[in-house]
Design brief:
Number of helices: 21
EC number: 6.5.1.2
Radius of gyration: 32 Å
Enzyme class: ligase
Keywords: DNA damage, DNA repair, DNA replication, Ligase, NAD, Signal
Number of strands: 16
Catalytic activity: NAD(+) + (deoxyribonucleotide)n-3'-hydroxyl + 5'-phospho-(deoxyribonucleotide)m = (deoxyribonucleotide)n+m + AMP + beta-nicotinamide D-nucleotide
Family: Belongs to the NAD-dependent DNA ligase family. LigB subfamily.
Length: 558
């Protein structure tokens, strides 16, 4: 949270460059902004007064940025105070904290580095900032960052942290150091484990007055020594000798953006003793400490890692009917990049899950990528005051509906066609949703397997299908005739569990119809209820009619 102000301006320029303002009347906009502002204030107070974090740092920052965007839309202003930590504490910093300007990509980093020398890269350690003051060889003061000019007196708590040196000598004996208190982690791989809410955990430890033992879990990374040695290598050596071991270990000279990118990727994917959220590039030589001002540190920039998740606004909600008749809900999102993938929709699941999550248009969802880059909902982080939820279609479809094409069956019928043509079923190369729509619109298929009767000439006469493609499709349809009997059983949607398929010995439709419930239950994965479903399914008039038609087409087993 305390780093949100620098992110705010960049996010406004980059993250929302193409975003549209909500289409709200002014009265509703004021209601929504006030409600979100109150929530952010509650989270902020809990974070900075009690050390409690109800939401992750990333969610807090992004919702604060969202609020600023709304204010810019409806008032023409974007006050930044909601993205800042609560400005508590009146202990002045001997040298102000400048903060770090964040750049969006390698190109921006390269532009900033152009013409400069003596640059170093460090991990952007994820924790809370602190000033350490040493006088005559002793640690006499520790100050939280606060607003960069003044913060809280953390001296008593910091003196209990074993990893923070309490005495110093040489150049460090009378020094002011700025650094990051962080949560010690053994082998933390940022790409796999994320931030672990490390910043909030450290803040909580520093706010609580009891449980001093938990301070053993904290480390210190010094990233600035105002008015210290001008030579960076000498500075790092003295810090290491003084007990600040991480600065020297994780600081490396760089000459170009490619080297920065290499360290960024290495630290993102390798085990580290702390959580980090990017890299920092800094000049070895800095301005004199008396010139340091919050927000004006032009000698240092940050390049953050790609976020593990993003807060995205729901722009619309749609419903689709699957091959088994189940209704699926899809949330359409404002398009955003997540790990180089453009995300603009996410599957919510069933109507029941959608109702439980209570997702409406305008709500804010935390979205991450699951296996194979598929977007998923981590949580609903914010709901609008005025609920806008469309009415789902009536639940009148099931596993035995829509084998024959009717206007009201369009979606389930199409879903069945897409399913049967997939690689694991009939493996009809080149057949997908678009093709099936085209064929059905042009030829008006009567039932699920009408395509078997198409001739090359009929396919070639369909607008958008060339003679060559029509011939190729006809060939694919004919190849489907040769698929094994059990593949055709799957294409029909017979509800046999996968575990039972390997034990199924029948090679004809008649044999399957002759099985009674008791015989079905002898197969693995088939209980009493599933056995009843199978008997009902196999004797349903629509299914029987399709089986008879497939027999007429000389499909094996029918």
């Amino acid at each position: 949270m305390q780093k949100g102000i620098q992110a705010l301006v960049l996010w406004m320029l980059v993250g929302y460059a193409q975003a549209a303002c909500p289409a709200w009347p002014q009265a509703r906009a004021e209601q929504e902004m006030e409600r979100l502002s109150q929530q952010i204030t509650e989270w902020k107070n809990a974070y900075w007064q009690q050390g409690n974090s109800a939401v992750s740092d990333e969610v807090y920052d992004q919702l604060a940025e969202r609020l600023a965007f709304w204010r810019r839309c409806f008032t023409g202003e974007a006050p930044a105070h909601d993205a800042l930590p609560l400005l508590r504490g009146d202990v002045r910093h001997p040298v102000a904290h400048t903060g770090v300007r964040k750049l969006p990509d390698r190109a921006a980093v390269a532009r900033w580095m152009r013409g400069q020398s003596g640059l170093w890269v460090q991990p952007k350690v994820d924790g809370v900032a602190v000033t350490l003051v040493y006088r005559q060889g002793r640690l006499v003061q520790a100050i939280s960052r606060g607003n960069g000019l003044a913060g809280e007196d953390w001296t008593a708590r910091v003196l209990q942290i074993p990893s923070v040196p309490k005495v110093s000598d040489g150049a460090l004996a009378n020094s002011v150091l700025q650094g990051e208190l962080f949560l010690l982690r053994a082998g933390h791989v940022q790409k796999q484990m994320g931030g672990m809410n490390a910043r909030a955990k450290v803040a909580g430890m520093m706010m609580r007055q009891q449980a001093a033992a938990e301070l053993n879990q904290l480390g210190i990374f010094i990233w600035a020594w105002p008015d210290g040695p001008q030579d960076m290598q000498q500075r790092l050596t003295l810090l290491r000798q003084g007990g600040f071991v991480y600065s020297a270990r994780f600081s490396h000279p760089v000459a170009n953006a490619q080297q920065v990118e290499q360290w960024r990727q290495r630290w993102f994917t390798s085990p580290l003793p702390f959580a980090s959220d990017g890299v920092v590039v800094r000049r070895g030589k800095e301005s004199a400490g008396r010139f340091w001002v919050p927000g004006q540190g032009d000698w240092v920039i940050a390049w953050k890692y790609p976020p593990a998740s993003r807060v995205m606004e729901v722009r619309g909600i749609s419903f689709s009917i699957g091959r088994s008749g189940k209704i699926a809900v899809v949330a359409h999102l404002e398009p955003q990049l997540l790990d180089d993938k453009r995300v603009q929709r996410v599957n919510v699941g069933s109507v029941s899950r959608w109702s439980t999550l209570d997702i409406g248009i305008g709500d804010q969802l935390q979205i991450s990528l699951a296996g194979q880059g598929i977007p998923r909902i981590d949580s609903v982080v914010w709901r609008t005051a005025q609920r806008n939820k469309p009415q789902p279609p009536a639940a009148r479809y099931n596993a035995l509906t829509c084998y024959f094409a009717t206007p009201e069956c369009a979606e389930q019928f199409l879903s069945r066609l897409v399913w049967l043509s997939s690689r694991s079923i009939l493996n009809i190369d080149g057949a997908g949703e678009t093709l099936w729509r085209t064929l059905h619109d042009a030829r008006g298929m009567e039932h699920l397997f009408s395509w078997l009767a198409f001739t090359p000439e009929q396919l070639q006469a369909i607008p958008g299908i060339s003679a060559q493609r029509g011939q190729r499709l006809w060939h694919q349809f004919n190849l489907a005739r040769e698929r094994p009997f059990l593949r055709w059983i799957q294409a029909m949607g017979v509800p046999i569990p996968k575990t039972a398929f390997v034990r199924l010995e029948e090679d004809s439709w008649r044999q399957m119809q002759d099985r009674n419930e008791e015989q079905w239950q002898r197969l693995p994965g088939v209980g009493a209820e599933r056995a009843r479903q199978l008997v009902t399914f196999l004797h349903h008039p629509d299914v029987a009619a399709l089986a008879k038609w497939l027999s007429g087409q000389r499909i094996p087993g029918f």
